[in-house]
């Protein structure tokens, strides 16, 4: 059932993984979708997939660490679709895996914070004004279970995602009376290129990841995308400031 007919959405980090799955799911729900990524070719492929399925999409390059890029992305979305009803701030990097804090590289820490936190900050700063002007909107930030519990040997990533959950809750309170809802999703290990890259660097991690999840498998990007669509739609109209866990039972342990 379409839930976002006549609405527009943008998705960052939409060249692959959860970002691409979210863009496709939003389009299936009826939204016109602006897709962006630092990988323009991948973003354009996502837009082609949407168009081939009968949807409406535009694609552009966007480095979320660059405020001008983010502002241009939002401006292009408004130019193409006339409004911005939903925004999915998904662009992110994994940082260190398998390194304790004292072994981690300071430059990598700075990069993770720059993309995962400052990128979300830049995006919301650009997305909120048009939503305020129209008196409505929904923002979904992609966090992680590592934003709710400690992630061993991934202190930089965990710190960035805890911050994403925090900024989500604060923004939700700031705009609760303005018709704008701000939520986050917190996936566990999901079968994406980012996770597959981590597994490739340490094959033992594949079994460690699946054993950590009570359901005994990785999540699928499409499963996360369905939750994103719900949070972007009026079906979740009384939900704001929430960090929705999608983890196969991991946090319940």
Mean pLDDT: 94
The proportion of residues forming helix, as a percent range, comes to: 40-55%
Query: How many H/I helical runs?
Result: 8
Largest sheet: 7 strands, parallel
**What spatial form do the alpha-carbon principal axes imply?**
globular
The H/E string reads EHEHEHEHEHEHHHE
Hey, roughly how much beta strand do the residues contain?
5-15%
Beta strands, count: 7
Based on secondary structure, the structural category is alpha/beta
Report Rg: 17 Å
| Poorly predicted residue ranges | none
C-alpha end-to-end distance: 34 Å
How are the strands of the biggest sheet laid out side by side?
3-2-1-4-5-6-7
What does this structure look like?
This protein has eight helices and seven strands. The model has no long low-confidence stretch (mean pLDDT 94). It has helices spanning 17-28, 40-52, 67-81, 106-134, 155-175, 193-201, 204-212, 221-232; strands at residues 8-11, 32-37, 57-61, 86-89, 137-142, 180-187, 243-246. Helix 1 (17-28) packs parallel to helix 2 and helix 4 runs parallel beside helix 5 (155-175). The radius of gyration is 17 Å and the shape is globular. The chain is of the alpha/beta class. It has a seven-stranded parallel β-sheet, with helices on both faces.
């Amino acid at each position: 059932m379409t839930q976002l007919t006549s609405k527009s959405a943008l998705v960052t980090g939409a060249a692959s993984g959860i970002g691409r799955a979210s863009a496709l799911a939003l389009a299936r729900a009826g939204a016109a979708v602006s897709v962006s990524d630092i990988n323009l070719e991948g973003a354009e492929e996502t837009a082609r997939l949407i168009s081939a399925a009968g949807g409406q999409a535009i694609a552009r390059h966007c480095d979320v660490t660059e405020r001008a890029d983010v502002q241009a992305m939002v401006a292009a979305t408004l130019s193409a679709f006339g409004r911005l009803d939903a925004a999915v701030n998904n662009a992110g990097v994994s940082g260190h895996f398998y390194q304790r804090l004292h072994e981690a590289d300071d430059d990598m820490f700075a990069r993770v914070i720059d993309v995962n936190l400052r990128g979300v900050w830049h995006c919301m700063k650009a997305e909120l004004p048009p939503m305020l002007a129209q008196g409505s909107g929904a923002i979904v930030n992609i966090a992680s279970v590592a934003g709710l519990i400690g992630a061993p040997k991934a202190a930089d990533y965990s710190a960035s995602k805890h911050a994403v959950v925090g900024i989500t809750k604060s923004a939700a309170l700031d705009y609760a009376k303005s018709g704008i809802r701000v939520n986050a999703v917190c996936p566990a290990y999901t079968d994406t290129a980012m996770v597959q890259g981590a597994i490739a660097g340490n094959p033992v991690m594949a079994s460690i990841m699946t054993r950590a999840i009570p359901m005994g498998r990785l999540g699928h990007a499409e499963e996360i995308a369905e939750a994103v669509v719900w949070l972007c739609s009026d079906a979740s109209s009384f939900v704001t400031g929430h960090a929705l866990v999608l983890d196969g039972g991991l946090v319940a342990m």
